[in-house]
Amino acid sequence: MMDEQLRETILLLSDGPLNAEKIVEILGITQQDSEGRLERLHSAGLVRKTCVHGGVPIFSLDFSIERLGSPYDKKIAEPLASDLSKTLHSFLESNADGVSASCQNIGISPGRAIEQLFLSSFSLIMKDLQSEIADEDKALSKALVDDDKKR
After folding, report:
1. Mean pLDDT (the chain, rounded)
2. Distance between CA 83 and CA 40 in Å, rounded?
3. Angle, CA 12 vertex, CA 58 and CA 148 arms, to 5°
4. How far apart, in whole angstroms, are the C-alpha atoms of residue 59 and residue 52?
5. Is the C-alpha dihedral spanning 145, 146, 149, 151 positive or negative?
6. Can you name the residues that pair with 19 across neighbouring β-strands?
7. Which element (helix H / strand E) includes 5?
8. All structural domains of the chain with their residue ranges
9. Chain segment 52-106, per-residue pLDDT in tens
């Protein structure tokens, strides 16, 4: 079922960015299947495609509630972003050596490392809501399939 396949890809990318070859390897699917899934998710604005060293694209989640037509309340989001930014900067100052070492070991930019660190931390915070989020992922995937069938 296609919506389950898209959900599977979304869930895999929730662990962090991957290239298409790694997605094929982890999911045990064909290159063509991987490319099809990623293209559908990318065109729906759920996955971001970024070219890295040597022009090899990597894919990561690019989900925003704004893409679904429900903008967040800036009066709430902006103060939260400000508070989180202060906390994140303070944490990074205290852990700069560890973050830098991780960047060098993995071969990623500091920006990407900070993004993934933040997303991983946020995922731990949101653990109690995972079943609700999984249900929403299923609904998003189903909506993509339904849109595809209408075309």
Report:
1. 80
2. 35
3. 85
4. 10
5. negative
6. 58
7. helix 2-13
8. 2-150
9. 666 778 888 876 555 445 556 777 878 988 998 899 889 989 999 988 888 888 7
Q: Check pLDDT > 90 for residue 47.
A: no
CATH number listed for the domain at residues 2-150: 1.10.10.10
Query: DSSP secondary structure string, 70-138?
Result: ----HHHHHHHHHHHHHHHHHHHHHTHHHHHHHHHHHT--HHHHHHHHHHHHHHHHTGGGHHHHHHHHH
Side-by-side strand order, sheet with 18-19 = 18-19, 57-61, 47-51
Q: Are 96 and 78 in contact (CB under 8 A)?
A: no
Phi-psi region of 18 (alpha: psi -120 to 50; beta: other; left: phi over 0): beta
> What tokens does 50 get?
């970024």
Closest CA relative to residue 42, chosen from 22, 57, 24: 57
Region 36-40 average pLDDT: 92
Q: Is 42 helix (H, G, I), strand (E, B) or coil?
A: helix
Distance, in Å, from the CA atom of 133 to the CA atom of 102, rounded to the nearest integer, reads: 29
Taking the model in full, what pTM does it have? 0.49
